[in-house]
Each structure stands twice: as structure tokens, then as C-alpha cells.
Description:
- The protein contains 14 helices and 16 strands.
- It is of the alpha+beta class.
- It has 3 domains: 200 residues, BirA Bifunctional Protein, domain 2 (2-Layer Sandwich); 96 residues, no CATH class; 59 residues.
- A 9-stranded mixed sheet has the order 1-5-6-12-11-10-7-9-8, with helices on both faces. Strands 14-13-15-16 form a 4-stranded mixed sheet, covered by helices on one side.
- It is elongated, with a radius of gyration of 26 Å.
Amino acid sequence: MPSWLLPEHIADVLPSEARKLEELRRSLLDNFRLYGYELVMPPLLEYLESLLTGTGQAMNLRTFKLVDQLSGRTMGLRADMTTQVARIDAHLLNRVSVTRLCYAGSVLHTRPSGLHATREPLQIGAEIYGHAGLEADAEIQKLVLTSLKLAGITQVRLDLCHANVLRALLRNDERATQYEAELFALLEAKDIPGLMSISTEFSAVTRNALLALPALYGDISVIERARAVLPNLPNILQALDELDALATLVGAANITIDLADLRGYHYHSGVMFAAYVPGLPNAVARGGRYDHVGEAFGRARPATGFSMDLRELARLSPMAKRKQAILAPWSGDCLLQEKITELRKAGEIVIQSLPGHENDQDEFDCDQVVVFENGNWILKKLG
């Protein structure tokens, strides 16, 4: 095998794509700042127990592990940044007030999440700490929609779910509680035969509710259908009320309800959501409420947020136009150097042709040239 071949699902980012990614990253972070979010930069690796706090077995399997040669302890290369940001809020900032934090950086996965997915996503996201009300959830979901719009994506479907619907059913049936992990997987896959098989010894109320959940998918009217078919448990009624209120607060035109879309269920504590766009079978962004993750860091705080993969987002967004640039000859003439400096200060891209070489770029389209005429260096249109 040639030494320059990269591992499967790991790839270099070439100039045009790299520029697109970087401009998208800057645009989204600048927009987060307009909402009052502060940028943090967690480390790429941490001790494993800190990195996996509250994330469940799925994230453990996705995390690359290594031994720290200084301490002898097991460390992990982050597969997600949400827990790291929760640690920063709970353990380092230690604020009492509402805190808005955002982040952007590479994460690593032991296996790709899909057939054509990378194992090195470029994750970007935002989190709100300190407010337990639905107003924070609504702000986060509006921020997702704004971010996708900045990326040139306007056809977005926002799917809402609630972790406490399944939890309420399990708490009400001791037998079902023993199969929590299996039920989660079956519901996520909408596997009705599997649910029928595993629930034979559950109470009739629990079994009927579990079999109904995969079909509780559609527009906002699903909430009323859920009220009719699910048991009148207080936590279920509260969850449905929150979903109903949040759909009104967000005000998005295309909101759907999917009470079986439970990805991230293990660490979410309330409303969960996923954003879907044309051209991508999986969610382009996911998020929700996770009030209990900070407990392991010494301080539980109400928390809600979202994250997305910039690489996926860049593939979906329209191709950026090539940047207009100015071509200049190579010369030691002081007047030419002053002209080039002046143009660059004005924000123009100036590319000097090195002697004996032609310019070949993916990103730039040179439509002007600096030429020497009548004792001055001036700009002229090319072609």
C-alpha cells in the first residue's frame, strides 16, 4: 500500500472545499455572536471518564482511545463536543446567570455514521445553560433554522420529539424497564414486529403505547392523536404540552412530530429535535435538552443546544463563485509594490506571477491585471 493513502473515510480537504468550509464556519460563528454566544475551544483529547460522561454506550464505541504516557490513564479523542462544553460551563466558568456558548472543531469517529460519511466531521454548535424554560429551546431551534438559511438551505423540516414519553412508559412498567436499551433501538428503527415480540409480558397499557409510538409521526396534529392513544401519565401529558407550545414558539412553517425518533435519548432530558433537508437521508442537525449532564462535573444546570457537521452542510449548500482577483507581474519596482499593498489594503486579492510560471488556481478568477503605462502602474481588464 502506498504510504500516502489515507485511512478509509478520512480525506484531505482541497482548496475550493476548504474555502467554502471556512467561509461557512466564519459566517455561522459570526451569527452566533449576534445572539450573544461566546466561543470556546475544548481540547481534542481528554481523560475518557470525563469525555464520555452522560453520553451512553453508543458514544463509547465511537471514541478512539489511547494511553496517556504521562499519567498512564486512558484518554479519548473526542467524538462529540457537547459534553466538553457542558464541563466548561459547570466546572470552569461556574456562572450563576444564563450562559450561551458556541464551538467549532474536528471530532473523530471510530466508524462512519453512514455509507459516505467521514470519520472526521467538522462539528459546529451552540448551547444555552441556566434556563429551564421552553424559551431557550425555541431560541436554539430558531438558531438552527437561521444557520441553515445562511448556508443557502431554505427547505428545512424540523422534527420534534420528547425523551420523557418513553421514560414515563418505562417508569410505569417494571418489566419494560429491564429492556430499555432494546426498546430504544426498536423504536428508533420503527420495528413493529420487534416491539410486538419484546413486549409480550408488559402490561397491556405499556404494550399498546409502545406499539403506537412509531405511527405517531406527522404534522402538529400528531400531538392530539398522541393524547388519545397514550396513557394519561403526568410526564407524558407534560411532554405533549411542551411539544405543542414549542411548535408555536418556533413558528417554523414545516414542523413535524416524531415520537419514536429517539437518537440521543440516553442523555437528553426533554425536548429533542432533528433538522432534515432535501438531498440528505440523515438529519443535518440534531439537538435538544440535556439538563443532567453537568451533574458529573459537580453542578447540574438546565441545558439545551444543537450541533451539525460543517462538511455535510458545505456539500449541501450551493457552490461558491470563484473569487475575482488581480494579476500582477513579479518585479522589484517600489512603485509596483506600493500599488499591490494599496490594493490589498482595500480588500482586493492580488496574485503575483512568479518568473517562468503560469498561475493555476481553483479558487480565483483573475479578471484584471496590473500593467505599467506612462510611468505608472495601473489596472486593466483582462480579455
